[in-house]
Amino acid sequence: MTERNLPRRFGLTVLAGLLAVFALLSVTPAPGAKAAGASLSHPSVNCGANATVAFQWQQISGGTVQYLDLSVQDGSFAKDTFAGTPVTGSSFTWGGLQAGAIHWWRINTNTSAGWQPSATGTFVPCGNPQPLTVNGTCADANNANIEFFWAPMAGPNGIQYLDISQNDAFSAGFQGAGPLNSGVFTYKWANVKANTTWYYRINQRQTDGSWKASPIKSFQTKCGAGGTGGTTSASAAASTPSGSPASYAPTGPAGSSKEFNPNVYGSNDKLTVPGVATGSRCSSAAPVNVRDVPSNGQLGDPTNDCDVVRYDFKLFPGYGGYPGDGGATVLAGHVDYSLAHEGGTGAVVAVGQYWKTMKKGDTIQYIRGDGKTISYTVQWVSAVPLGSDFDYSTLARQTGTESLSLITCGGTWNAAAHEYDERNVVFSLRS
């Protein structure tokens, strides 16, 4: 049997309602990425409570096994960053995907010469196109050649335009490249003025004639005499929906680069649940680390079996909180943990394994790094089926009462999808 890297047994869906998620109305499938492996076509989607995406590709000859790999973290497909499912033929439909989130996918085929991955495709199901990166090289001291990358909407949809402007509201005129086919996700633009801040967006037209625009990002390529240099910096600018003023607040991690941290970072806080067991390798007070929630609302994974993650919703006004300071605190932990991540075999019980045994009236204690202990009383415990219409955003939405929620996986392990079919949710209010 050929071994493949599988993700940790965790994978929260995007918090529904944190972002404006729009129904997709149009489509024309377009050819997608090509490489030595399978040739990908642009996916199409049906939108409901969750997104159901239909994938298609052209197989390569000589393949014995195919996997469809899917990631919402990035396109590197590094260990523990993606889910993979075995597929046959040249199509597969994957339900329960995260509406509005950027997805990367590929087909990995095992042949007599080894694994042959396709090029990587990217798309956003049931949402707006999303900018990714900008690369620039100097043509001369005053001009640069720019290559843009973005995630287009999944089909069915219409043509796209890439717009650039020196005004973040695009109110003083702009240049547009297009029309581009619906599945295109990169464009090279020659002789863009260097040493100048530019703003760009992707606009995608639907069959009813309406447009969906990406968030606006900025970039600048610094070029010196003789075309030297070529350092390109890119960041999110104000995302200005139609009818909104240019001062509309930034809504992306790059837009708050001084505050947003894409990596997990530590704290001196701990979580304890009196009378409830913890993971097999965990103490009664589990360490709490922090993950900032990016603009797509995706909740990042805990790092190991004993790690509890507190999610910081700094990009989402009106959401999130910190124990003792008010708001709605959301925490997550693994239910179990594969020792393969440490080079071992088997699995261990993780910190969230026994959260599902909690009941109304139980106590949760959050021990802050400053020594304060904040107590909460459990109001309800629920097993939420994956793909249900449960609105996770209610857990993070600030109300007049301080709350704390615990989320972990539950139910039955789905080996084909590489995830559990339920999420266990514990909701508590400050005592």
| Number of DSSP helical runs | 1
Low-confidence sequence ranges? 1-34, 236-258
Roughly what fraction of the amino acids lie in strands? 35-45%
The biggest beta sheet, please? 8 strands, mixed, barrel
Instruction: Please name the fourth-level CATH homologous superfamily of the largest domain.
Output: Sortase
Count of extended strands: 28
Q: Please write the CATH class name of the largest domain.
A: Mainly Beta
What CATH calls the topology of the largest domain is Sortase, Chain: A
* Overall mean confidence score, pLDDT: 79
- Principal-axis shape equals globular
Report how far the terminal alpha carbons are from each other: 53 Å
**What oligomeric state do the depicted chains represent?**
single chain
Series of secondary-structure elements, N-terminal to C-terminal: EEEEEEEEEEEEEEEEEEEEEEEEEEHEE
**Helix percentage range:** under 10%
Task: Give the count of structural domains.
Answer: 3
- Helix/strand class: mainly beta
Q: Would you write up a description of this structure?
A:
By secondary structure, the chain is mainly β. It has three domains: 1-122, Immunoglobulins (Immunoglobulin-like, Sandwich), CATH 2.60.40.10; 130-256, Immunoglobulin-like; 265-430, Sortase (Sortase, Chain: A), CATH 2.40.260. It is 1% helix and 44% strand. It is built from one helix and 28 strands. Strands 19-20-21-22-27-28-26-25 form an eight-stranded mixed barrel. Strands 12, 13, 15, 16, 17 and 18 form a six-stranded antiparallel beta sheet that branches. The chain is globular. 44% of the residues are buried.
